[in-house]
Specification:
Length: about 425
C-alpha cells in the first residue's frame, strides 16, 4: 500500500441460509432472496442503521435474467432503502462478489467512498430457459404485428425445427465442456484419485456441521424466520467415506473420479459483505469483526491447456511474492471448493516449483502448503455454491475467523472462476 492510499477493511455482512436447488428456498427468486439480506445488513442491528451511510452498492448474479440487468440497483430499490445511493451490478462468474469487494476497495483507496455494501445472489431454481433466435424473433414480431392477420402470417413463418428450448448449463462457451468435465481433465493431469477427493469432501462436511453446531454461522445469517429455513440445508452430518465411495462418477461415467458427493451442488442463496475505510467501517457497531484488506490479485490461464480452474495457482504466488511471504506466513486459507479435485490440483500446483516458475513467473520458495489451516469451518462442498454469493460468504467467514487471531495474522481468500479466471485477496487481523 502506497502512503497516499487509505487502509481498507472488510467486515462480515449477512447472508441467507443456503439450500440445494428446488428445495427449501425454491419459491424465492433472486430478488426475494437478496432483499432481506440487504435490508437487514443495512438497517438491522449489525449494520450502520441508516441507508444514507452507504456510499455504493455492488451486487451480482451470474445466471442471466430477462427482467434484471443491473442487479445492484434493482435489489437496492426492491429493498425500499434510500433511493439516492448509487448501485450497480457486477459479474465475474464464481468470484462475482469477491470482485465486487475489490472493486469497492479500489474506489475506497482512491478516496471515492467510505463504505460499500457488496454481495451477490443466485437462484439456481429460477434459471430462465431461452429460445433459439429465430423462434424468439418470430414470437416478438407476432406480438408486435398490430393485427390478428399480420400476427397469423408472421407466426406461419415458423418451422417445426425452430420450436425448441435452450436450457442453460454450466459449460464453457469456448470449449463446449462443462466445468465438471474440465475438472476431470485437471484431476487426470495432476493424478488426483477418487479417495483423496472423497476425504476432502467429508472433511468439509464435518467442519461445516461442527461450525453450525457451535453457532459459528448464526451471526452471519439473517434473523430466524426470514426465510423458510433458518440454517444451511446442504451440510450432511450423516455422510461418510463409505457413502461417498458408493456414488457413481457424474461427468466421466467410465473412468471419472468426480461425483455428486465431491462436487458442489447447485445452490440457492444470497450473501453480503462490507468494504470500507477506517471511518466507513467505524459506522458499523463496535462488536462487528473487521480485518484489513491488504491486497488482491487476479489471474487468467489458457483454459484449453492449463486447466479451467487453475488460475488461482498463478494469482496466489504472485500476491505472496509481492509481500515477500510464503505459504506458512498465512494463518488462514479460505479456498473455494468448486470440486474437491480442483482444490487438490490447486495445492499440488502451489507446491510445484516448476509450475510456479513456468506459469506464475515466481521463483521464490513458498514452502509446503499448510492443509490444516484451510477452510476450518467448511467450504463450498458442504455449504453450497450460489455463484454470485460465494465470494461474500467466504470473505465474511474469513473476517470472523481471522479477527479471533492475534493482530497481524494473515488470511488468503481464493476463488477460481469460469473462463479460466482466478481472484484472490490477502487479509490481515487488525
Amino acid at each position: 500500500m502506497t502512503p497516499n492510499q487509505a487502509e481498507i477493511f472488510v467486515a462480515p455482512g449477512l447472508r441467507s441460509p443456503f439450500s440445494r436447488i428446488d428445495r427449501e428456498l425454491s419459491e424465492l427468486d433472486a430478488l426475494r432472496l437478496s432483499t432481506p439480506v440487504v435490508q437487514q445488513s443495512v438497517v438491522g442491528p449489525r449494520g450502520p442503521g441508516r441507508a444514507s451511510a452507504v456510499d455504493l452498492v455492488l451486487w451480482g448474479s451470474v445466471i442471466p435474467s430477462l427482467e434484471v440487468s443491473n442487479w445492484g440497483r434493482e435489489v437496492w430499490l426492491e429493498s425500499g432503502l434510500e433511493p439516492h445511493v448509487p448501485a450497480q451490478g457486477i459479474v465475474q462468474a464464481c468470484a462475482t462478489s469477491l470482485a465486487a469487494a475489490t472493486h469497492a476497495a479500489g474506489q475506497a483507496q482512491a478516496g471515492r467512498l467510505e463504505l460499500a455494501l457488496c454481495g451477490g445472489v443466485e437462484s439456481m431454481t429460477f434459471t430462465q430457459i431461452g429460445l433459439p433466435l429465430r423462434f424468439s424473433r418470430t414470437l416478438r414480431r407476432t406480438v408486435q404485428a398490430g393485427s390478428p392477420i399480420r400476427a397469423a402470417r408472421t407466426l406461419a413463418q415458423l418451422h417445426l425445427s425452430d420450436i425448441r428450448i435452450r436450457i442453460p448449463t454450466a459449460s464453457e462457451r469456448t470449449t463446449g465442456m462443462t466445468m465438471g468435465q474440465h475438472a476431470e481433465e485437471m484431476a487426470k493431469r495432476w493424478e488426483i484419485g477418487r479417495e483423496p477427493q472423497d476425504r476432502l469432501a467429508l472433511e468439509s462436511h464435518m467442519r461445516a456441521v461442527s461450525a453450525r453446531e457451535r453457532g459459528f454461522f448464526r451471526p452471519l445469517l439473517v434473523t430466524p424466520g426470514t426465510f423458510p429455513t433458518d440454517e444451511d440445508a446442504v451440510p450432511r452430518p450423516d455422510t461418510s467415506l463409505d457413502a461417498l465411495a458408493r456414488l457413481r462418477p457424474s461427468f466421466d461415467r467410465e473412468s471419472g473420479t468426480l461425483t455428486a458427493g465431491n462436487s458442489t451442488p447447485l445452490t440457492d442463496g444470497a450473501a453480503a459483505v462490507w468494504i470500507g475505510t477506517r471511518h466507513g467501517i467505524g459506522l458499523l457497531p463496535d462488536d462487528i469483526p473487521r480485518v484489513r484488506l491488504v491486497d488482491w490479485e487476479e489471474a487468467a490461464i489458457d483454459l484449453r491447456s492449463e486447466g479451467l480452474l487453475m488460475a488461482p495457482t498463478l494469482a496466489i504466488p504472485r500476491l505472496l511474492a509481492r509481500h515477500e511471504l510464503g505459504y506458512d506466513s498465512i494463518d488462514l486459507w479460505e479456498i473455494h471448493e468448486a470440486f474437491a479435485a480442483q482444490v487438490l490440483c490447486t495445492i499440488a500446483a502451489l507446491e510445484s516449483p516448476e509450475w510456479q516458475a513456468e506459469k506464475a513467473g515466481v521463483t521464490r520458495e513458498m514452502g509446503a502448503f499448510p492443509r490444516d489451516r484451510m477452510n476450518p469451518n467448511g467450504g463450498s462442498l458442504a455449504l453450497g455454491h450460489p455463484f454470485g454469493a460465494t465470494g461474500a460468504r467466504i470473505l465474511s467467514q474469513a473476517a470472523v475467523e481471522l479477527s479471533e487471531k492475534p493482530s497481524g495474522s494473515r488470511a488468503v481468500v481464493s476463488i477460481c472462476a469460469a473462463g479460466g479466471l482466478g481472484h484472490v485477496a490477502l487479509l490481515e487481523a487488525a
